[in-house]
Every structure is written in C-alpha cells, then in structure tokens.
Design a protein that fits this description.
Elements: E1 5-12, E2 20-22, E3 26-32, E4 39-45, E5 48-52, H1 55-62, E6 71-73, E7 81-88, H2 102-109, H3 117-126, E8 139-141, E9 145-147, E10 153-155, E11 165-170, E12 174-180, E13 196-202, H4 205-211, H5 265-277, H6 284-300
Antiparallel strand pairs: 1-13, 2-12, 3-11, 3-13, 4-5, 4-8, 4-12, 6-7, 7-11, 9-10
Length: about 300
C-alpha cells in the first residue's frame, strides 16, 4: 500500500535467511520473486526469546493450513497471538512438516552437505546471540501439503507465482526470521530454489485499527515469567536435581463429586440409542457425560470444536 512507510527491505538469496525486528504495529511482508519458493519461518519475542512461535497451539486453533485472518501463537505457558496473517494471495501454508535439517538429507538421501532450513535459521538468529538449540518448528509459507486417507503427510506442487505475498502484523515486538527453504529435491519449491523479498513496513492507522490486538495478556493463564515459581533462565547444560525441591502442583488434589441426574423414559431410550452407536461409552454415566459435554462444547466453547466424528 502506497501510504505505508518502508522500514527495511532485504532480498534473501537461496541458502540464506534474515532475522528482522518487527515492532508492534509493523507489518512483515514476504514476497515471491521467482515462481514458487517456500519460506520457513521462526519468531521470538524481541524482549524475551523464551517466548517463541508454537506450531502446536497455532495448529490447534486454526487448523492444518492457516491463512489470511489466522494468528501465529506463542508457546505455552505464554500462549499469546504474536502475529496475524492480514493478507495471503495464495492460501497454501503448512504447519505440519518440521523444518528440513542436515541430518534429514544425510540420513534419507546420502547428502553430507546440503542447504537446509535448520542451519539457515540457526545462522540467521546467531546475529542476535541465539544458538541452533533455539530454532523451533517452523511455519512453512506457501508449502502446499495434504494428508492422505492413511493419515500420512504428502507435499504437492507449489502454487505460488512471482508477485504473490503474505503480510503479517505484529501484536508485540518480535524477531521475525524467514528463510529460503532448502528443499530442492522435493516439490516444496518445485525442485528449484529461488530468492524471496522481505520487507518491514509501518501499518496504516486503518490497518492497526482493524487488526492490532491488545499487547497485554487477556487471560490469567497466559502466564509470564512473573508468574513462574522459577523464572531465572538456566545457564548450564547439565541437569542436576534440586535437593530442596518439593512438588507444588497448581491444581491438586483433584476432587470428584457424584451428581445424580434424573432421567425420563425418553432419556433412557436415547441413551440406548447412543450405546448402540458405540462411540459414546458403555455405562449410563459415560454416555450422559459424553452427550452433555458435547452439547456444552458446541454451545459455550470458544475457538475450534473437537468432537467425536459420530456426533
């Protein structure tokens, strides 16, 4: 958009990546220069690198193929929206496949030396004092994937073309780390590596008004180091037991209460039908619990619904 201010621009050549600070209210734009190049992506809280992007929570809340309007969430126990995808001209992204590694190419294909996402990301974040151990599972922009009827992942031909792009707005200051995916022997990037352009831009007032979320946690269980019983970051690699340790579980003991539920003849008939279905349990108590909580989830749960396929 013409009224945005360009903060920084960089072209990532094959075999490279770039760590870029993206401040709250700024936009990260990743753009295709060639035809069809996957970009792996890591992100860290710029002021606390222990808060980082989490594929699992993002997958749980937005499904297997997040796209425009979906958010990239940080890992538990922080669990905050880090960025929102505000534009996506293709709509094929993946958060199932892990980043490719040197080990993968050596073990599976016999290449002792091969460009790979883990090493590129590790070198990119070294500029900010982070190590290869700090690289995490990636968001894979434009990686076109699927799941077959046996539950196995597969990679389809890349659909992105020159000029396609994704844009993400940052909800708090992050270190954004895209890289040119090194997978040239798969259809991930159509068997050829190409450069990508990255930009950091100031969002317009209208974009901030539409997309920007509160910077502070909204829920009590979006925890920060101030909530940790032990908040100091461990500086040694050896693990030694704390001899003074005493367990202090957050919710313990778990107390169960019995609740009598009056059932009519019609209710009993419905229970028998659900018992015959086979997907709701066997005892009356199991079936009633399953039916009640299925209804409760549908009526009151925020976010995605996880229910038995037979319901």
């Amino acid at each position: 958009m013409s009224d945005r201010e360009l903060v920084v621009e960089h072209v990532m050549e094959p075999g490279t990546g770039k760590a870029l600070p993206v401040r709250r209210g700024q936009i990260l734009r990743i753009e295709q220069i060639g035809n069809g190049q996957c970009a792996d992506f890591n992100a860290f809280n710029l002021h606390d690198y222990k808060e980082y992007f989490h594929t699992g929570r993002t997958r749980h809340l937005h499904g297997l193929f997040p796209t425009e309007g979906d958010m990239l969430w940080s890992a538990p126990p922080r669990e905050r929206p880090m960025l929102t995808i505000i534009r996506d001209t293709v709509g094929t992204n993946d958060i199932q496949y892990p980043r490719c590694t040197g080990f993968l190419y050596e073990y599976q294909y016999g290449f002792e030396t091969h460009t790979n996402c883990h090493d590129i990301l590790a070198e990119s974040i070294r500029e900010y004092g982070l190590t290869p151990d700090d690289v995490h599972d990636s968001f894979n922009f434009w990686m076109h994937t699927g799941v077959d009827d046996q539950g196995r992942l597969y990679i389809k031909r890349m659909l992105a073309k020159s000029g396609d792009y994704v844009e993400l707005i940052a909800h708090f200051d992050v270190l954004a780390v895209p890289n040119v995916c090194g997978a040239d022997i798969f259809s991930t990037s159509n068997f050829e590596l190409k450069p990508l352009r990255v930009q950091v831009l100031e969002a317009t007032d209208e974009e901030r008004e539409r997309w920007l979320l509160a910077a502070e946690p909204e829920y009590r269980n979006q925890r920060t180091p101030a909530d940790f019983k032990l908040s100091q970051i461990k500086v040694t690699r050896e693990l030694d037991r704390d001899e003074s340790y005493e367990p202090d579980w957050s919710v313990y003991p778990i107390v169960k209460h019995s609740l009598k539920v009056p059932l009519s003849d019609e209710d009993h008939a419905q229970i028998e039908g659900l018992r015959a279905n086979g997907g709701f349990g066997q005892s009356d108590g199991e079936i009633v619990r399953h039916a009640f909580f299925s209804w409760w989830i549908e009526e009151y749960m925020r976010g995605p619904k996880h229910q038995h396929a037979g319901q």
